[in-house]
């Protein structure tokens, strides 16, 4: 993906700083025996792999029922007349439940996060004029905490077109039988 935005730069800076510190201390204490040196290298590689893993797990793809529960607790069920199944269906077709989704529209604006929120109207990012009606940074729409994303969609859906603002919802979810989307999710 093209998006070096988001919380990623901070995470990578932390990683680089950590590795610099770690490498410096390891090099200063490198043992002269080849086996000890090899052990040190293995230890370093393990540390590197673990740290990379810790950075990448910040991305999150929600499970269907997992999303259901977060949306329910956040009071989205029936909000402005839309059942939870509508939100889950919309998010699936817009982003596949991916909190890091960023897609560019034909008009040059971008849609951010698990609900594909547009930077022309709702959030502010660098280099784009925005109404910023949700009063938030677009990068906050890419982390694993979607409570602020939910607050923003509550604002978006109050507009006259309601969920019709999401093209994929209109295409795949509007006026459909949506029961399958919440099937098996414990109330
Ligand atoms: Ca967020």
TrEMBL record:
The keyword Zinc is annotated on this UniProt entry: no
Gene3D superfamilies per UniProt: 1.10.530.10
UniProt keyword list: Disulfide bond
Keyword check for Aminoacyl-tRNA synthetase: no
GO molecular function, one term: lysozyme activity
Glycosyl hydrolases family 22 (GH22) domain segment(s): 134-152
Pfam families assigned: Lys
Family statement: Belongs to the glycosyl hydrolase 22 family.
Protein name: Lysozyme C, milk isozyme-like
